From TrEMBL:
Domain CRISPR type III-associated protein intervals: 10-304
Name this protein carries in UniProt: Type III-B CRISPR module RAMP protein Cmr4
Record keywords, A-Z: Antiviral defense
Organism taxonomic ancestry: Bacteria, Pseudomonadati, Pseudomonadota, Hydrogenophilia, Hydrogenophilales
Biological process, per Gene Ontology: defense response to virus
Transmembrane region(s): none
PANTHER family, A to Z: CRISPR SYSTEM CMR SUBUNIT CMR4
Organism: Hydrogenophilus thermoluteolus
NCBIfam families: cas_RAMP_Cmr4 (TIGR02580)
InterPro entries noted in UniProt: CRISPR-assoc_RAMP_Cmr4 (IPR013410), RAMP_III_fam (IPR005537)
Keyword NADP in record: no
Pfam short name (any one): RAMPs
Length: 311
């Protein structure tokens, strides 16, 4: 049984390829997705591996590694680790916008799933309920993102995302402002009250968080990822191999996901560490730090910043 709980926010600062294996579709190397929503996700096993790797690289006390995460297979003193990480679900996804460069798009289902997860691990949030939303509509907290359009003699505010236009139901939604400010204060790193490196993005997620309908958001989360062509070069000829062209999908930078982080006392049988101390060790090492997750690490993929919010 796990005695301490926390939310682990992961904010992508580079494309992230958490691969799902080869596929028979247009994209040869797709990213992991939830079966029921088709939203991009990170498997908990991959996150735990990244945390272990990050802890090994950043911690000054390497003797804690096996006690917190469990020993490597094949060792004689096998025991369970004290750290468990669940799958990370999507909270906000960057989408190109006519105004403001890009917005942090989300949807009612993604926000309510995040609210439920935070509640289950003891993180109390006071997000007001959002107004009902139909397909083709959106909620904004920043009126500067809108464009005015006149139709049948009436003026309407619209939001342009990529090639699509959405009717603005509320251009300064107070409930959405509250959610954006909570994410600004909790989901992105800050240090000593203010970290200059993240201040722009903290302010932007508070102002440019946009709610689309579940259906409209699902389109972008599936079709607005970063797809890169790769070509295998023949070492002998220096030219592309026949059949060497393949496509790899990445989660775009500025995506935000959240996962549950659970800990128990260590179970090595000697000098066991209390769950409060285990959480303290994990948070002290990775909170606000850059981690590498997923594949293609040598090409700069998979850089995420971790933020731990305790329940």
């Amino acid at each position: 049984m796990f005695q301490k709980h926390a939310a682990l926010f992961l904010y992508a600062v580079s494309p992230v390829h958490m691969g799902a294996g080869q596929a028979i579709g247009v994209i040869d190397n797709p990213i992991q997705r939830e079966r029921h929503t088709n939203h991009p996700c990170f498997a908990g096993s991959g996150i735990k591996g990244a945390l272990r790797h990050g802890f090994a690289a950043l911690s000054d006390d390497k003797s804690l590694l096996d006690r917190l995460f469990g020993p490597e297979a094949g060792k004689s003193d096998l025991h369970a680790g004290a750290v468990s990480v669940g799958d990370a679900q999507l909270v906000a996804f960057p989408v190109r916008s006519l105004k403001g460069g890009y917005v942090y798009a989300t949807c009612p289902t993604a926000l309510e799933r995040a609210r439920r997860l935070l509640s289950l691990i003891g993180v109390q949030v006071t997000w007001p309920p959002l107004p009902d939303l139909n397909e083709g509509e959106c909620l904004l907290a920043n009126p500067a993102l809108t464009t005015k359009r006149t139709e049948n003699g009436k003026q309407a505010s619209v939001l342009h995302l990529e090639a699509f236009e959405y009717v603005v139901k509320e251009e300064k939604c107070e409930a959405l402002e509250s959610i954006g400010n909570w994410l600004k204060d909790n989901a992105l790193p800050q240090q000593n009250g203010k970290d200059e490196a993240f201040e722009y993005f903290r302010s932007k997620i508070a102002s440019d968080l946009v709610v689309l309908s579940d259906t409209d958001f699902a389109y972008f989360s599936e079709h607005a990822t970063l797809v890169e062509p790769h070509v295998r070069i023949n070492d002998a000829t220096g030219t592309a191999d026949d059949g060497g062209l393949f496509y790899t999908e990445n989660l775009p930078p500025e995506s935000l996901l959240v996962a549950p982080l659970l800990v128990s006392r260590t179970r090595s049988g000697k000098d066991d560490i209390a769950p409060e101390a285990v959480m303290g060790h994990i948070k002290g090492v990775i909170d606000g730090k850059l981690l590498q997750i997923g594949g293609d690490a040598t090409t700069g993929r998979g850089l995420v910043v971790a933020k731990v919010v305790e329940g």
